[in-house]
Amino acid sequence: MLGINIIRQGTIGVKEFLGKFIGTIGAGFHLTLPFLTKVKIVDVQPQTKDSNFFVITNDNVTAKINQTHVYRVDAKNVSKFVYGVDKPDHFIGQRIEA
Asked: What is the pLDDT of residues 6-34, one digit of tens each?
């Protein structure tokens, strides 16, 4: 019996066999072994994250700054993103505030 994985356009699947990284799979229809092979799907399309913060100028005026950051996961380094970052949204939020 085989498992069916459908990877949509703009996403990449990170394939694990018994918990060990064995490669990435692109868009399309893929057959895997259930319970032994696991596929994590990562969106590699551009994402946006908004941030707002207040600053005080030299003349003691408070100004609100709105920022919009556009980022994407590099398709060649998807495994580094999946295994190198515990909470991707939190990590990206920290990088924006720095």
From this structure: 999 999 999 999 989 999 999 999 998 88
Residues 6+ apart with CB under 8 A from 96: 49, 51, 67, 69
Alpha carbon distance 79, 77 (integer Å)? 6
Closest CA to 47 of 76, 14, 10: 10
What is the spatial distance between Cα 37 and Cα 17, in angstroms, rounded to a whole number?
Answer: 4
Strands (E), 1-98: 3-7, 11-17, 20-25, 28-32, 37-43, 47-56, 62-71
Stretch (H or E) spanning 78: helix 78-84
Rounded to whole angstroms, the Cα distance separating 6 from 13 reads 9
Query: Over the stretch 3-13, which tens digit does the pLDDT of each residue have?
Result: 898 999 999 99
Question: Position of tokens 């380094």?
Answer: 77
